[in-house]
Amino acid sequence: MRNLIISLCAVIFGLLGGAILMAVTGHDPVEGYKYLFQGGLKTTSRFGDTLATGTPLIFTGLSVAFAFRTGLFNIGAAGQMLFGGFCATVIGLNVDTARPLLLLLMIAAAIFGGAIWAFIPGLLKARFNVHEVVSTIMMNWVAYWTIYYAVPAYLKAEQIETESRPLADKATLKAAFLSDMFGGSYVNLGLFLAVIVVIVIAFIINKTTLGYELKAVGFNRHSAEYAGIGVNRSIITSMLISGALAGLAGMAQYAGNGTNIQIGVLPTQGYDGIAVALLGANSPVGVLVSALFFGLLYSGRGFMNAMTEIPPEIADSIIAIIIYFAATSVLMDRLITRFLSKRRSTTMAATAGGKEKV
Amino acid sequence: MWTTIQQIFPYAIMFTIPLLITALGGLFSERSGVVNIGLEGLMVIGAFAAAYTMYELQTAWPGHQIAAIWIGLLVAIVAGTVFSLLHAFASIHLSANQVISGTAINMIAGALTVFLSRNITGSGNIRLSGGFPPFDVWGLSDIPIIGPLLFTKTYWTTWIILAVVLLSSFVLRKTAFGLRLRSCGEYPQAAEAAGVNVRKMRYIGVLISGAFAGLGGAIHLVTIAGEFTGTVSGLGFLALAALIFGQWRPIGILAATLFFGFASTVANVSQVIPAFASIPPIYLKVFPYVVTLIALVLFSKTSQAPKAAGEVFDSGKR
């Protein structure tokens, strides 16, 4: 409950911060927000786009949240997503088989690619106590340059040097019935995959021995060790699962929302995953909701930018401010406590005053 | 081979300097006990503040291009310092997770600066009409061997930053202030018992990191980039790696950043230099990062990391 209040407060502060930014730069915040939310919700097609934009964020948010539960800070979701998406694209472009099998193979490749990219930091942490924040940042840049050279070398499009050939429709998560249902939106099967994965991860965290052990390691590494839990194995397992989730984000992005992989960018969804996880209080359902909220901001900003003069980066600014307030939740915690105690004392004072009058 | 070295040397130094000053800032922060992975964002803030200042001043006073650059650098220092207050407040007063707070700084900086520059120029990029002109040090550039390597095509900022490194080394090792700062990162409770105001020292540490990273971003802008685009392409993270690689010592950081400077320069120019053209560029590009990973493994047993870095200061904990 308290988590929910803190998250809501962070959102409110973020939106207020965005409003101040708009006002300071000479725009009308009310109009800005009106178009921002209309842009993400007004028609079924826009709503579908919001869902689609949120889909990779669900995966990266889950990835970061899952690692958090084991006390690990996986800041490398961007690199894992990129490499997972790359592996899926390699399969999608080179294997020709029946669609369900092909998609399963691609999903497996994405899971494998993301997991292997997270395995290295996990192993270094478990074996050599190398801090995962630094090693995952390094792995992000290794992924960036690997894709930078591998895509033009092996998957090059005919005209454009900076991206891979587009995947055939059957090698993507696109589904005609979904697009039709949402008035031509690019929402795709990735959303179903994401919802299934949310349920699976919630089950693992809350109902299984593995989840219990991982949480125990996250709470207190030493007491978990004392209780006979293999801490090193838990760290590696947690990073593998976290990486696999980020890899799926790559699948959802490059073979769902888009149809190819570009070079020269670390996907921003990787860092936004941190935001999603924080706002969602590291719970799978919280992640789902906050990912869709960020999806709304991202998909609505284009419409806002078209209707007003407000630059689309306002959405990123709002998200960044939300994160700052989510990170400093102690402040909010204190404010809530102070508010509650003040209200208690005023009601007490009021009742006391009432008594005096009588 | 000699001409190759001679050619890439000034570029390598140019690349090293922003990295060096930023990593040095990170050193002050971590020595005081606060991990600052927001260095990247603070560099972006510095670069933006400098770019915007120079953009305005260079238009206003066309005759004083160089003065505008110097003022831009100063503004970058101020902007970096002010912005790092956010991180200091969150991690020192609010007991926030320092890594998350640093990440928030990175995200805010990236989004906010592009938002503002899009309001200013419409495109989100700020182009400078002129950067710092490199110069040859009079007299010294004629010395054989070291002259062409060290004293040609240098920048004023290079010499200032090198002086700052030496000064920092002295301050951290030999002065009472340095001792107090380091004690806050090693064992803050003991420092407090000895009468040191731990929170104040940590604020100073973080603010120095903000000032230095802001300056680093601005130097990157005026010597290498020439245009603000909302990113310093991971230099802040590389500075963090250099800090660890350099084992939290000024001279170690100097060596580590020089190494990264050379590695990156070689990777950038490998295609035009015959000696390197045969190596696939991907190996050269990932080299610094892989070496950092290996170094982390090698140093894992003997890490000189400040023991309390990243920990919230709790004066009740003994």
Jot down its keywords.
heterodimer; A: 358 residues; mainly alpha; 15 helices; globular; disordered C terminus; B: 318 residues; two-stranded antiparallel sheet; 13 helices; 1% strand
Can you walk me through this structure?
The complex is a heterodimer of chains A (358) and B (318). Chain A has helices at 2-24, 29-41, 44-69, 77-94, 99-128, 132-154, 176-181, 190-207, 209-219, 221-226, 231-257, 268-279, 284-307, 314-327, 329-357. Chain A has 358 residues and is mostly helical. The longest helix of chain A is centred in the first third of the chain and has 30 residues, at 99-128. Residues 354-358 of chain A have low confidence and may be disordered. A two-stranded antiparallel sheet of chain B has the order 1-2. In chain B, helix 1 (2-31) crosses helix 10 (235-245) and helix 10 (235-245) packs across helix 11. With 318 residues, chain B is an all-alpha fold. Chain B starts with a helix and ends in a 19-residue tail after the last helix. Chains A and B meet through helix 5, helix 6, helix 12, helix 14 and helix 15 of A and helix 3, helix 4, helix 10 and helix 13 of B.
Write the layout of secondary structure elements.
The complex is a heterodimer of chains A (358) and B (318).
Chain A (H helix, E strand, L loop, with lengths): L1 H23 L4 H13 L2 H26 L7 H18 L4 H30 L3 H23 L21 H6 L8 H18 L1 H11 L1 H6 L4 H27 L10 H12 L4 H24 L6 H14 L1 H29 L1
Helix pairs in contact in A: 1-2, 1-14, 2-3, 2-13, 3-8, 3-11, 3-12, 3-13, 4-5, 4-6, 4-11, 4-12, 5-6, 5-11, 8-9, 8-13, 9-11, 12-13, 12-14, 13-14
Chain B lengths: L1 H30 L7 H22 L4 H29 L4 H24 L4 E2 L18 H5 L5 H19 L1 H11 L1 H6 L4 H28 L1 E2 L6 H11 L4 H20 L4 H4 L3 H19 L19
Antiparallel strand pairs in B: 1-2
